[in-house]
Design brief:
- The complex is a heterodimer.
- Chain A is an alpha/beta fold.
- Chain A folds into 2 domains: about 170 residues, Thiamin diphosphate (ThDP)-binding fold, Pyr/PP domains (Rossmann fold); about 130 residues, Rossmann fold (3-Layer(aba) Sandwich).
- In chain A, the strands form 3 sheets. Chain A has a 7-stranded mixed beta sheet with strand order 3-2-4-5-7-6-12, with helices on both faces. A 5-stranded mixed beta sheet of chain A has the order 9-11-10-13-14, with helices on both faces.
- In chain A, strand 10, helix 9 and strand 11 form a beta-alpha-beta unit.
- In chain A, helix 1 packs parallel to helix 8, helix 4 runs parallel beside helix 6 and helix 10 crosses helix 11.
- Chain B has one domain: Thiamin diphosphate (ThDP)-binding fold, Pyr/PP domains (Rossmann fold), CATH 3.40.50.
- Chain B is built from 9 helices and 7 strands; from the N terminus they run ααβααβαβββααβαβα.
- In chain B, the strands form 2 sheets. In chain B, strands 1-2-3-7-6 form a 5-stranded parallel beta sheet, with helices on both faces.
- In chain B, helix 1 runs antiparallel to helix 2.
- The chains are: A alpha/beta, B alpha/beta.
- At the A-B interface, helix 4 and helix 6 of A face helix 4 and helix 5 of B.
């Protein structure tokens, strides 16, 4: 992976937000005392009159953002994922989602890659929580170029959205192509489908490249648009490959794996294996070492891939 | 200002409030569930707002320069629906559909289904936050509109209420008025027995609000406070309206029992008679 450059998703978001602010003079941005980390500070210094740093009141930030949007504005609200989806859940539910308010929640620091701050600041439940809200668009970009496109794309779409970003710089694995509701096929293949989101898309491509060296052809789908998601592309992958490996830096109980398993099971049952955060809270540590420790290492991904290939009789 | 409000206006507001209270009883009886106590306590505040203070137009409910009303205590929906019907925002006969499947009249107020419902509420502690967001939006657009949020007293136990109040004060939102329907009771009993919120006016003052305490059933005091709020241009106003839960129906007053319970037919008819409905017309 050494050759693939890594870039900050948060920087991409902050810069895109400033561009959006130039385009849309009514756009507002809210943050809850983390504007340096989320990069909304870039917008705040450029447009101080349209930036509200409300302090550490994530819940009420959601109500304020909703109230400010109902007159026809597009409003972005940012904080860490554990606060946006966790702390503020019922405020996102009632104030934002129930009103179908035009609020774009861009949450940074999703998953375990928060690293040293530890288990209280990491979250593996946010995608499941947000995906369960009627009308909520949920996007998990895999890299900086996609983050940039997504920041614009959610503004084009009226209604609430939850965008989950990662604290760590991630390998740039896409050209930034993204459309809500469409999966991005990053690698063609017919023996196995690897469906991944966010930080694990890079590892999906790594493992796919390794498998290719021994003659296994893996299709890699970046499912950045989690809701709505590209059901036809998923079912095509099921039919074409007969086995799906899901990679997500999210709880396997309520995340993408559960979505993929349910969807294939109802429409075209194939073996599905889930790699993600087990039913555990995280802990402090080096960010990438945490992924390995919690079952998302390249080795584990490779093992699960082999298991699926064995089940399908494609390897001995 | 209040002093200049002629007696006939006050009498008219009293008559309107009485009619709202009768509708509240009929609606909740027909629905078989609902919140009479807090609906009857907030009735006079709603009548004063919708029939005197607010710049609204039933013919143009989405007029951009309208004043906004957020009923943060969304369980008092029957009182708001009845007031809106009498004000011409919805047909009066529709009131009987409250809480029925397919009705626009949801159990807690619901934006988007009915004209002039600015925010969906119910889960407590979010209404003031939404009102603060609206007030910021309107001020940025330099609109003359003002935002009125009506809080229940149980909501003063919710952290979100105080977060939002802090924000309103910080942004010096002179176009924001928070009105507390201080009827003293929540679902399980009296607020002071469950988790005391007093001295509540001091708390609003400490949070930076121009704070006015009134009798929430005295229209001259209500209109006086709203006039003072309109004339306050440097900060938000809080009005602590001391009210009586179940106001107007003797057996519903000053008890938590009627916070969230519908009257039986006999109880509803007795309530209507107490509210001045002739016995011959009180039968349900």
């Amino acid at each position: 992976m050494g050759a693939v450059p890594r870039e900050s998703l948060r920087d991409a978001y902050g810069k895109a937000l400033v561009e959006l602010g130039e385009r849309d003079p009514r756009l507002l941005v809210f943050d809850a005392d983390l504007s340096g980390s989320t990069r909304t500070a870039l917008f705040g210094s450029r447009f101080p009159d349209r930036f509200f740093n409300v302090g550490a009141m994530e819940s009420t930030m959601m109500s304020m953002a909703a109230g400010a949007s109902l007159g026809g504005r597009t409003v972005y609200a940012s904080t860490f994922a554990v606060f946006a989806a966790g702390q503020a859940y019922n405020f996102v539910r009632q104030s934002v989602a129930y009103h179908h308010a035009n609020v774009k929640i861009v949450a940074t620091h999703g998953g375990l890659l928060v690293g040293a701050d530890g288990g209280t600041h990491q979250i593996g439940e946010d995608i499941g929580l947000m995906r369960g809200l009627p009308g909520m668009t949920v996007i998990v970009p895999a890299d900086a170029p996609t983050t940039r496109t997504v920041t614009f794309a959610v503004a084009e779409r009226t209604g609430p959205a939850y965008v989950r970003l990662t604290r760590e710089d991630l390998p740039t694995v896409t050209d930034g192509s993204f459309a809500v509701g469409h999966a991005n096929e990053l690698r063609a293949g017919s023996d196995l489908a690897i469906v991944a989101v966010g930080s694990l898309v890079g590892r999906a491509l790594e493992v796919a490249a390794e498998l290719a060296t021994v003659g296994v052809s893996s299709r890699v789908l970046d499912l950045a648009s989690v809701k709505p998601f590209d059901e036809p592309a998923l079912l095509r992958a099921a039919r074409d490959t007969g086995a799906i490996l899901v990679l997500e830096e999210h709880s396997v109980l309520t995340g993408i794996g559960a979505l993929v398993a349910a969807t294939t099971s109802e429409n075209y049952p194939v073996p599905v294996r889930r790699v993600g955060i087990p039913d555990l809270f995280g802990e402090s540590g080096d960010a990438w070492a945490l992924l390995d420790r919690y079952g998302m290492s390249a080795e584990r991904i490779r093992d699960e891939a082999w298991e699926l290939l064995k089940i399908r009789g494609k390897v001995q | 200002m209040a002093g200049s409000v002629p007696d006939e206006r006050i009498e008219s507001l009293q008559a309107t409030a009485l009619e709202i209270r009768r509708e509240v009883i009929r609606m909740i009886f027909a629905a078989g569930s609902g919140h009479p106590g807090g609906s009857l306590s907030v009735t006079d505040l709603l009548a004063a707002l919708l029939f005197e203070e607010l710049h609204v137009d039933p013919a143009r409910p989405e007029w951009p320069d309208r004043d906004r009303l957020v009923l943060s205590k969304g369980h008092a929906a029957p009182a708001l629906y009845a007031a809106l019907a009498l004000r011409g925002f919805l047909p009066r006969e529709e009131l009987r559909t409250l809480r029925k499947l397919g009705s626009r009249l949801q159990g807690h107020v619901d934006r988007g289904r009915l004209p002039y419902i600015e925010a969906s509420t119910g889960g407590v502690g979010q209404g003031v936050g939404m009102a603060v967001g609206m007030a910021l939006d309107l001020r940025l657009d330099r609109r003359p509109s003002r935002v009125y949020a009506i809080l229940g007293d149980g909501e003063c136990q919710a952290g979100g209420t105080w977060e939002a109040l802090m924000a309103g004060a910080h942004y010096r939102l002179a176009n924001l008025v928070v009105i507390l329907d201080r009827n003293g009771f929540e679902t399980d009993g009296s607020t002071e027995a469950i988790l005391g919120i007093e001295p509540i006016a001091d708390k609003f003052r400490a949070f930076g609000y121009a704070t006015i305490e009134i009798d929430g059933h005295d229209f001259r005091q209500i209109l006086g406070a709203l006039g003072t709020a309109r004339a306050t241009t440097d900060r938000s106003t809080a009005i602590v309206a001391r009210t009586v839960t179940g106001k107007g129906v003797s057996f519903m007053e000053n008890t938590h029992v009627w916070h969230g319970k519908a009257p039986s037919r006999a109880e509803a008819e007795r309530a209507l008679i107490e509210l001045g409905v002739p016995a011959a017309e009180a039968a349900l």
